[in-house]
């Protein structure tokens, strides 16, 4: 419902041409097999991509969790990853800010570029990467500290504020952007764990955007919330995508349909299909996608 | 669907109902049995504790009161030189004051019996008093001095007057003198501050725990200063940074085993390593503290690790996702969140160390020392070794003092635990 109201109509109008043209430009620079290996319907990257992932494989020890995933994520775009449990969508999300580094025995091959720089190359410092690619988790996980300190932590460690008043401004704008300011402005010193689940999740979003990232990754951000809190977060995401690239992993196909510009479907560690959300749901190309959307498995 | 369910007759239904009721009855009876046996176990534990504390208080409370005799003492220059008050014949001053009270006692053996009334340590108390106030020389002062142990016991009713004279430490004559002095209002009971402010002594009436308390304090301080940072550091490394491989597994098993090693083994180790190899000073809180630190380390490491483990990994992830380094994630978030648990573990370890006796016996912290240690490298006793010493002493006054020392030790333990609870609640409130 939100999708239709908020997605620019122009995006759909010239969708097939511009999408395919862009895909051609991106995937055909001297490497024709790459284009060939990507499922026909999956080639739907945005123009002017923020993140370019090509032929990403992820291994946990000997077990391969992701096979040859290639996708481009545009600026000011909200992309939803859907798929059954264990399909690799969260794994792929975590490779985008190298959170998989913390898991023993996890290795990544392929190439993921953020603004043209390979994030697994030595040029990219993982700390800098994570300050540019923020993350919000499935379960709200505020630090056991005050509301203020939660939001101020990121700017503090990255030295973004030169004075207390600058930090105050950063905290206020982040909380405002997360739609939480009016609810908490009188109790910034109170413990964050005293907030409700939905408020905690918005606090985590405020904490992530306080660092001014370019991309925000969200791993099922609403699965622990009630429908009202979910609706609040969804409308918040639609506002935030004006500024950030947002990637949302979700179990809920309805949620993907409501909020995302593009949807990618993962199955058994493979990216089966990706496309503009409306055509993806109206007219899925791959039989697996059709079955999944039709509720045959999941 | 209904067709699949067999139709039951009313008799069958009543039968099943009865069975179900019986089962419920059985379950309730079992619940009740479990509840009552739990209550019984608790009652046994509480009553044993009450008996223990009760018997300690019953025996030990008399040590907190001391019988004093107040005498008019003539500090004449015959006995004390102004130039050197330390060399005075204070014994004679006290004896003269006693003879003034009982001028009829002239026979030497009777006089000797009379002179046994004040504590043998009284002359030193008087000496210290005069030495610090030399103006008093040449005057007559009223001075309260502790009576010696048998009279103290008599006053407290622990020496029975009904006992036959030959079976009693005090002769009838001595009891009569004491009663006469009591009638004259010269005998008084005071709170026995000496128990806390005096060092150890051969004479129970002036023996105190000051040396042992200071010794325990220094020992614990060194134990804490060594085991707390080392233990937390080791736990953080093992839990959060070390790779999981055979080597770290081996270390982990060894730490768990060390926690179960009998404490006397640590005493032997300290004797061999600290005293014999390193030549550290014997009987000192320094060596005692290091020994107890070795013993406390595994406790602190295990407690810290489990406290770190109990911090949800989501907090670690949240910090990393914001671009914190692993060190920042640990020191900004995980360690503070685990602090209440770490402190609880540390205080439990410290409480264990405070009560530890066996390893300290091996490094000679049970020597008789009539001085309070000024530094951690002065020879000293600790509370538990002092209890051990007093429990071995033959004087009757030490029976109640042993119990009183145990009560002081228990009091310290309880207050340490209270501090732990206070700290934990304060830290938990911050979150």
Outline the structure in words.
The complex is a heterodimer of chains A (298) and B (431). Chain A is an alpha/beta fold. Chain A has a domain at 75-105 and 118-293: P-loop containing nucleotide triphosphate hydrolases (Rossmann fold, 3-Layer(aba) Sandwich), CATH 3.40.50. Helices cover 40% and strands 22% of the residues of chain A. Chain A is globular and about 55 Å long. Residues 1-44 of chain A have low confidence and may be disordered. Chain B is mainly alpha-helical. Chain B has two domains: 68-192, no CATH class; 210-430, MetI-like (MetI-like fold), CATH 1.10.3720.10. Helices cover 64% and strands 5% of the residues of chain B. Chain B has helices at 10-60, 90-101, 108-115, 122-132, 149-155, 172-183, 194-197, 210-241, 246-258, 263-277, 285-309, 313-321, 326-354, 358-362, 383-392, 397-430, and strands at residues 65-74, 140-146, 187-191. Chain B has a three-stranded antiparallel sheet with strand order 2-1-3. In chain B, helix 8 (210-241) runs antiparallel to helix 13 (326-354) and helix 11 (285-309) crosses helix 13. Chain B is extended and about 115 Å long. The mean pLDDT of chain B is 90. At the A-B interface, helix 6, helix 7 and helix 10 of A face helix 12 and helix 13 of B.
Helix amount of chain B: 55-70%
What is the CATH superfamily label of one domain in chain A? P-loop containing nucleotide triphosphate hydrolases
The Cα radius of gyration of chain B reads 32 Å
What share of residues of chain A is helical? Answer: 40-55%
Oligomer: heterodimer
From the 3D structure, determine the CATH topology of one domain in chain A: Rossmann fold
CATH superfamily of the largest domain in chain B: MetI-like
Largest sheet of chain B, described in full?
3 strands, antiparallel
In this structure, how is the largest beta sheet of chain A organized? 6 strands, mixed
The rounded distance between the terminal residues' Cα atoms of chain A is 23 Å
Quickly give the structural class of chain A. alpha/beta
Enumerate the spans of chain B where pLDDT stays under 50 for 5 or more consecutive residues.
none
Low-pLDDT sequence parts of chain A: 1-44
Order of adjacent strands in the largest pleated sheet of chain B: 2-1-3
> What count of structural domains of chain B?
2
